[in-house]
Amino acid sequence: MKISCSIILVFSVVFLFSCKKEKKADYTDIIEVLDNTQDAVFDSLTVPEHLRSIVKQISEINTYETGVLAKGQEKSENSENFKKLTEIASDDELRSLLNNKNKTVAVYAAVGLLNRKPELLEEIFQKILHLKSKVHTQNGCIFGDQNPAEPLYDVYCRSLNFKEVRTDLKLRKLDSLIIFNSNSPESLLQEAFRYRVYPKSYRKRIEDLAFKNHKIDAVRYLNHWHKGDYADGIQKEFISMLKNDSLSYNKKMILSALLSFRNSENRELVLDYIKKDTLFIDDHEIAKELESNGIFPGEYPTK
Fold first, then answer.
1. Distance (Å, rounded) from C-alpha 232 to C-alpha 223?
2. What are the angstrom distances between the C-alpha of 49 and each of 24, 45, 93, 100, 149?
């Protein structure tokens, strides 16, 4: 989710002010959940004494920061805290922090352990992926709430070059875990379907994602690789997306994909849609697709 840097500055002032007030409390050896706005969890019950201070600092900020600074930001405090954590925590201690009730702490522990033990990638990722709660994230001027596995996936992807992203066996395994996990977010599904052609044994799971769970990237995957086998189901999904008219996906892509079927039964539906949504009236690519479906400029509004 993107917001302007000016809004971030206001948010940051409020956020930091609130954190300073909370620092007056004593959080030693307790688990405390703050109000719904801050929702910071302080979990130090099983944290070794020498790590408690740094874990509390990470928990208070309660945001996974990549280290890329927002406008007006002088430093990334949690990125600095992460460096300190990895300097003093052992491998076993980082592994233990994967279970911390503060998901920001858990994600930093996962990244730290991955940096030290790349061979543990699959184990760490699978554990983090199954977490159902979100983690607050900041990457420059971009704030969001993500599945805790998203930052970990990004860290590993950034360690690969473009060719490796397509061929890396570890990343292929992560993509497999994403597809078969019931909690995978849209962003990870998009990545999992971006560069892969999956074997027949995956087909039933992808069908469920597309037609039962209505995951757009699964529908697009089937449309790209198995269009003839699933023509009816794919068109129904695209039609439903247009009717829903959500801003969460590229409407031009959906309309273009539906028109590519050249199905006369979709003609009236498409015509009604473009009469209501004039976003595409000057789009030459869409105009060509419409003509291929027997829909011409005189039948819908144009400038």
1. 11
2. 20, 10, 11, 15, 27
Return the number of other C-beta atoms located less than 10 Å from residue 265's C-beta.
8
By CB atoms closer than 10 A (0-12, 13-18, 19+), residue 274 is buried
Strand ranges in 101-148 using DSSP code E only, listed in sequence order = 135-139, 142-146
Dist CA 67 CA 84 (whole Å): 14
The DSSP symbol for 159 reads T
* Count of Cβ atoms closer than 10 Å to residue 152 Cβ: 23
Two tokens, residue 151: 């930052």
Specify the length of the chain in residues: 303
Print pLDDT tens along the chain (303 aa).
Answer: 333 333 333 434 344 334 333 343 343 343 443 332 368 999 998 899 999 999 999 999 999 999 888 777 788 899 999 999 999 999 999 999 999 999 999 999 999 999 999 999 999 999 999 988 899 998 988 888 999 999 999 999 999 998 999 999 999 999 999 999 998 999 999 999 998 999 999 999 999 999 999 999 999 999 999 999 999 999 999 999 998 876 667 888 999 999 999 999 999 999 999 888 877 777 889 999 999 999 998 888 877
Which phi-psi region, left, alpha or beta, contains residue 140 (left: φ > 0; alpha: ψ -120 to 50)? Answer: left
Q: How far apart are the first and last CA of the chain?
A: 33
Residues 59, 40: Cα–Cα separation, whole Å: 6
- Amino acid, single-letter form, for residue 32: E
Exposed/middle/buried for 241, CB within 10 Å: 0-12, 13-18, 19+?
Answer: buried
How many CB atoms are closer than 10 A to CB 167?
Answer: 10
Instruction: Name the percent of the chain in helix, strand, coil, to the closest 5.
Output: 60, 5, 30
